[in-house]
Amino acid sequence: MKPKVYQISPLSRTFAYESGLMGKFENFLKDFDFSSFISKDDVVPLKMHLGNQGAFRTIRPQFVKLVVDAVKSVPAKPFVTDSVRIPGYEYLEVAKDAGYTHLTLNAPVVLADGIFGRDSIKVHAGDLLGEMAVASAIHDAKSMVVLTHVKGHIQAVLGGALKNISMGGVSQAPRGGDWHQGRGKMHFLMGDLMQWDETKCILCLDCMNVCPAECLTFPDDTYTVNKEKCWRCGRCARVCPVEAISVPVTHELFMRAVAEGAKAVLSTFEPHRIVYVNFLLEMQPECDCMPLADPPVAQDQGILISDDPVAIDTATLDILSRVKPLPDSRASDITPKEGWDVFSLLHKKDGRLQIKEAEAMGLGTSDYELVMIG
């Protein structure tokens, strides 16, 4: 049987609350059988991205609270979580400013790998990555709900459910270990540090200013990295306006690494214990970890729900293959191409590679049934 992917339309047909996206989502959650995925009294992580200073297009707290309330009705004990993306204390402050607090969500907000981003358990990922450090609050949970704000990504192309659990479900590094066992391994499979081309560099210092680990300096106008502090996140390479900095990994290997990272996280759960919710709203071209939020590249397409991460991401890209790029966005000038989604066209890489790799690893299927709601 094909996995179902439910799509809740953002269109309202009347002025009643039940006709709007929030009302339709609330009613869907009331009818959705969470108890078939979540056992009574389970402590359940609601895995999401909490954003960054300036990244204001994350999932709105009102939608998160509806999921919290639905999980509590099982009854179970939800908490909102992510692994450390910027220094942990700052990340909690960012979450608070975005409206993610116990008071607004009716559930605690917890860092999955602790305030210092080191609380994790090593899990076998695959032949490419070997072991990965899965965040302990996710590793130890019996069930999970994955809330994903769909957006673009310079390397993964699609910031969907698979990337959410892969790069967001592991730590920067395990306790007592280094970046070779954490998230940075996905970015740096073929090398140890970023590569700097002095002939291209214009000394704008954008890379230094965006670095979450504050490990970049320019003594005597020379790009210098504190190797011990560096997270290997690759943001310095992303923001360089002249491509003077590069990350030593190919697109194909990175996509396989994303799939292996997801496999590592999913291996800690029994089958049919995870629900995925993709929010195709305010879909900006960059990841929410960047300290900015560009205009959305496509009109809102609603909310997708499934129990299959490959199916829901495939449906996401199928929908984004049919949309028109929004004017005055970064995608406004791209030329449509049959079968290619707006993010793949924008970033000039095939976003379906991570889905194909995940499907080949048995994480789900791309053959799904779409069920329209409202």
Task: Provide tags for this entry.
single chain, 374 residues, alpha/beta, Alpha-Beta Plaits, two-stranded antiparallel ribbon, 13 helices, 28% helix
Number of strands: 16
What can be said about the biggest beta sheet? 8 strands, mixed
CATH domain fold name of the largest domain: Rossmann fold
The computed structural class is alpha/beta
Strand content: 15-25%
- Annotation field: number of helices: 13
Strand order of the largest sheet: 4-3-2-7-14-15-1-16
Radius of gyration: 20 Å
Q: How would the global form be characterised?
A: globular
Give structural notes:
This protein has helices spanning 21-31, 61-72, 88-97, 102-105, 136-139, 161-168, 184-187, 206-210, 235-239, 251-266, 309-320, 342-347, 353-360, and strands spanning 4-8, 43-47, 77-82, 109-111, 120-126, 130-135, 144-149, 151-153, 157-159, 195-196, 216-217, 224-225, 245-246, 274-280, 302-306, 369-373. With 374 residues, the protein is an alpha/beta fold. The chain has 2 domains: 4-184 and 250-373, Rossmann fold, CATH 3.40.50; 191-246, Alpha-Beta Plaits (2-Layer Sandwich), CATH 3.30.70.20. The protein has an 8-stranded mixed sheet with strand order 4-3-2-7-14-15-1-16, with helices on both faces. A two-stranded antiparallel sheet has the order 5-6. A two-stranded antiparallel ribbon has the order 8-9. β2, α2 and β3 form a beta-alpha-beta unit.
Summarize the structure in short:
This protein has two domains: 4-184 and 250-373, Rossmann fold (3-Layer(aba) Sandwich), CATH 3.40.50; 191-246, Alpha-Beta Plaits (2-Layer Sandwich), CATH 3.30.70. 28% of the residues lie in helices and 18% in strands.
